[in-house]
Amino acid sequence: MNKSAISSRMAAFQKAATSSNTNNTDDANKNGMKSSVGKLSKSKISALNIPLGGGRQSHQQQHISSKVTIPTMSSSCGNTDDTNKNEAKKSVGKLSMSKINAINIPGMGGGPRGGTQQQHQQSRSSKENMKPKPGKTPPKINMTMAHNDHTSQGHTEMSEKAKATIVGPKRVGSEQENWDFLYELASQYDQYKLQEKEEMKNPIKQKSATPEKKPQVQGDKKSIKSSLEGLFGGGTSYTANGKFLTKEYFDPFILENTKFSTVTFDFSNEGTKLFKRFDRKDQEQRDISQKFVAALLSHPRASEITHLSMSNALLPDEFLVALSEQCLLAGSGGGGGGLPKLQVMNLESNLLGIDGLIAVSKCIADPNVWCRLQILKLENQKAELTSDAEETLGKAVVHSRSLVAVGLHVKGGIPKQQIDNTIKANVDILRQARRKHKLKTGSLKERKRNDMEQYFDKIVSNTDPSITDVDLTGNLKFIGLNATERIKSGSSFGTNTTVKSIKMVKLQLDDDFAVAFGKALITNSTLETVILDSNSFSGTGIQALLTGLGKNKAITNFQIRHQTKKINSSDEEVLPLLLKENTTVINLGIDARNQMIKMQLDRKTNENREYQRKQRNLNKK
């Protein structure tokens, strides 16, 4: 095809295209809309500058938006539909996040998930910081570590109130104790334990205030009347004026045990007939409680009562308040107050609360009231006792010289510690009172000494020449010795002439033993090897041992390593000076942390080796 034919055809094509553009405008618009709506490419979307939100556009985006215009729905040539279709095929479903982030949406602040660009930069930087970096891994957080922050842990440090709290009784000197009275308390407690043991083996049916019921006959009016009287008070008129509280009313509840010389006021399980009538907390309940206590304390045998048993009697706080007030009033004039011989108070399973416990605590803390009270039972109250009630009772028990048993579940740490420490101290002082009484009367019998004590008695007396090696590593019999016998065992080697080797390892030996054993080393002349590893010597004990070793002239091997207590640096500095006079020890084992001290001790043992070598050479000549 020549050039003229081609040019003619091109002219005809252009003419046909211009004519079709004017005749088919509607079709072109329709086709343009189909190809453009929903089919914008990535480059066109990024070029759009929509002034809707508060996001910022980059300089490059502003430059692109100034050059690119929004495409119209119509096309200017016949190839517009084809180009739009090709671009739509490439762009549908392929929008990148970087282009979408460039669109600012009002109210959302721009950027991914509605955050600002500054916030997203911070989040990216934090994520980068969280990524593991090469090198040493950072330390992990100890979730169980205790913190000293008061807001996160309120009980890490002791408060000033807790520091000032007395958690144990203050004892006076042995010369100021009333040992005769304490021995009476000890005898009284021994009788109580014997009585309790006998009652458990042979339970005795206690007398009841109400007579035994006879079998009822159907239709018997007297039986019906007696049943109604028992239901509403057993025939007694429980009036608010308290006229029924007479001597005859209390007599059936007072029981005497001649074998153990005890008098018990047993009012257990009787509250349903009396205090249930006055169960409302009002003036009437307070009045009946005060009148009940006054009538009880005025009974002819009130001063003989040793046991007050009122468990499960529905006792309110007002009863204990009245009892405390009247006993304190009677005790202010001397004579032991109300119920001067009271030993056991059983108030279990009642309605007592903080007011009742505070009232009892006042009497316990007063040395002139209930000075013989030893057993106090307060468990199983209807309402749970508060922490204030426990603290009040704990402070009162600390001042008691007689209590040896308190039946109460205490949750507070300090009140529980106060009660436990007081009971232990009182039990121990009763033991001392028994011993002093036996010494006074000459009835004290020396106990038989056990095998371990007899073993050291032989060492002291040198009566058994076969004992040349003492090896007590982890011996339980030695660990069971009391402090006095342990000190005696350390002193026993001072006069011994047969033992050559001692190995006392893992025996929990303390500084008191070290002081006694150090003094024994000064006079001992037969020991050659001493091994006291794995004990509880501190710097004081080690100084005492090396003081004796420095003056000893026979020991060649001395080991005191692996102690549970550390040596202070000031104590270590003295050790080489203590061995200045020693010329025999050549093997010395001490866990000194100061390298200079270690070098000085090693130099001392080397000097002793050289000295002994020279002595051997002189002896050969």
TrEMBL record:
Region (Disordered), start-end ranges: 1-143, 200-222
Compositionally biased intervals (Basic and acidic residues): 210-222
Biological process per Gene Ontology, one example term: actin filament organization
Xref: SMART domains: LRR_RI (SM00368)
Chief place of localization: cytoplasm
Entry keywords, A to Z: Coiled coil, Cytoplasm, Cytoskeleton
Domain of life: Eukaryota
GO cellular component, one term: cytoskeleton
Coiled coil as UniProt keyword: yes
Biased composition (Polar residues): 57-81
Compositional bias annotation for Low complexity: 15-26
Compartments (UniProt record): Cytoplasm, Cytoskeleton
An example Gene Ontology molecular-function term: tropomyosin binding
Coiled-coil intervals: 594-621
InterPro entries: LRR_dom_sf (IPR032675), TMOD (IPR004934)
Protein name: RNI-like protein
Organism: Fragilariopsis cylindrus CCMP1102
